[in-house]
């Protein structure tokens, strides 16, 4: 539910999606993914979209919604460069696999000699109590991480037309420890660092992403396109951990700001100076206006409404429902209960600005 607002703005937040209850949810979802690419392509930009998430609510990587728009191309990159990354980094994934096979063989012996009523517990749906978790995590991490690592090699600078790259990546979703201080994936992690977040997997994978993005941005500078680029780094959600972003807890039981405080980093064309922290009340639904400002009229081509119209000037509704599978919602709306809403406004660090909607 946090992805459509990034691509389409406030009309695609959960509350606004539910208010358009005569339009199928899948149609609204696809609309959101088309707003920025369609507007930019109509302004002459060559648009590349990578790894869009379940378009048409279809897991088969169906990108047909983009086909009728000129100058829009899509690629699925996640998992495409994993073998190359393993090869170039002398990463012996076979060693990890063989270790799991040996361990599973031993656990299989325990399974066979155990009473029948105990076997299901030992089997653990084929995981044998997490024997393959490390291998699966590393494989999935590299599927995403390799794309970031190869961005400098994948970037070309010969285009004669303006380009827009809309890159999706799930590196920060794969929670695993990485090797300090480079935060490069390794089979055996010997050093996690000594800071206050050294044993926080979220910190490790986020550090890996930012280091890789930083190296790519340095390449853009070397090739004289950094200044002439507008760059946005954004996430669809935060996570419910104690990230120390505020000393004052919310008054809402079992809820933390961290879950609803996604990253939003922005660099405009030809901007200069030191990094600035802007405390303005913003959300990831502000991304379309940030991306299109000064380039095109910020009008949603599907609804005719201005992308600048948003409800946050008064109060913003966010949902505590975290069912991300669209097939578990109804045809036209998200299945959100009356008590699964929070109203937030202005400064998010003031607990008085958060209110749970009971009904």
> For the report, how would you describe the main beta sheet?
3 strands, parallel
User: How do the SSEs run, as a string of H and E?
Assistant: HHHEEHHHHHEHEEHEEE
Looking at the structure, what is the overall shape?
globular
Corresponding CATH architecture of the domain at 3-81 and 150-170 and 197-308: 3-Layer(aba) Sandwich
The tally of beta strands, per DSSP, is 8
| Strand residue content | 5-15%
Overall pLDDT confidence: 90
Which CATH class of the domain at 3-81 and 150-170 and 197-308? Alpha Beta
Share of helix, binned: 25-40%
CATH topology of the domain at 3-81 and 150-170 and 197-308: Alkaline Phosphatase, subunit A
Q: Helix segment count? A: 10
| CATH H level, superfamily name of the domain at 3-81 and 150-170 and 197-308 | Alkaline Phosphatase, subunit A
SS-based class: alpha/beta
Main sheet: strand order: 2-1-3
Plain-language structure description:
The protein is 32% helix and 9% strand. With 359 residues, the chain is α/β, with parallel strands linked by helices. The chain has a domain of 212 residues: Alkaline Phosphatase, subunit A (3-Layer(aba) Sandwich). The strands form 3 sheets. The chain has a 3-stranded parallel β-sheet with strand order 2-1-3, covered by helices on one side. A 3-stranded antiparallel β-sheet has the order 6-7-8, with no helix packed on it. 23% of the residues are buried. The mean pLDDT is 90.
């Amino acid at each position: 539910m946090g992805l459509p607002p990034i691509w389409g703005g406030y009309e695609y937040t959960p509350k606004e999606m539910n208010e358009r209850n005569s339009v199928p949810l899948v149609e609204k979802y696809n609309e959101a993914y088309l707003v920025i690419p369609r507007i930019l392509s109509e302004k002459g930009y060559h648009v590349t979209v990578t790894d869009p998430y379940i378009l048409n609510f279809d897991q088969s990587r169906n990108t047909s919604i983009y086909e009728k728009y000129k100058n829009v191309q899509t690629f699925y990159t996640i998992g495409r460069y994993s073998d190359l990354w393993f090869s170039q980094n002398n990463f012996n994934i076979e060693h990890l696999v063989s270790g799991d096979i040996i361990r599973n063989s031993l656990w299989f012996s325990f399974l066979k000699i155990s009473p029948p009523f105990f076997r299901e517990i030992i089997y653990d749906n084929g995981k044998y109590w997490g024997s393959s978790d490390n291998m699966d995590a590393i494989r999935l991490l590299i599927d995403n991480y390799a794309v970031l690592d190869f961005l400098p090699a994948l970037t070309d600078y010969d285009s004669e037309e303006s380009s827009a790259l809309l890159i999706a990546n799930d590196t920060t979703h794969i929670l695993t420890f990485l090797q300090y201080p480079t935060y490069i994936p390794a089979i055996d992690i010997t050093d996690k660092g000594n800071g206050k977040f050294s044993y926080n997997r979220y910190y490790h994978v986020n550090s890996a992403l930012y280091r890789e993005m930083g190296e790519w941005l340095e390449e853009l500078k070397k090739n004289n396109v950094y200044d002439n680029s507008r760059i946005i780094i954004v996430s669809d959600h935060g996570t419910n951990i104690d990230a120390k972003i505020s000393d004052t807890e919310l008054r809402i039981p079992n809820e933390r700001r961290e879950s609803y405080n996604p990253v939003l980093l922005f660099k405009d064309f030809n901007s200069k100076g030191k990094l600035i922290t802007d405390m303005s009340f913003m959300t990831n639904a502000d991304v379309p206006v940030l991306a299109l400002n000064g380039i095109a009229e910020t009008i949603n081509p599907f609804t005719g409404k201005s992308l600048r119209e948003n409800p946050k000037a008064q109060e913003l509704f966010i949902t505590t429902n975290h069912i991300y599978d669209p097939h578990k919602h109804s045809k036209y709306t998200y299945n959100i209960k009356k008590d699964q809403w929070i109203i937030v406004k202005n400064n998010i660090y003031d607990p008085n600005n958060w209110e749970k909607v009971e009904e």
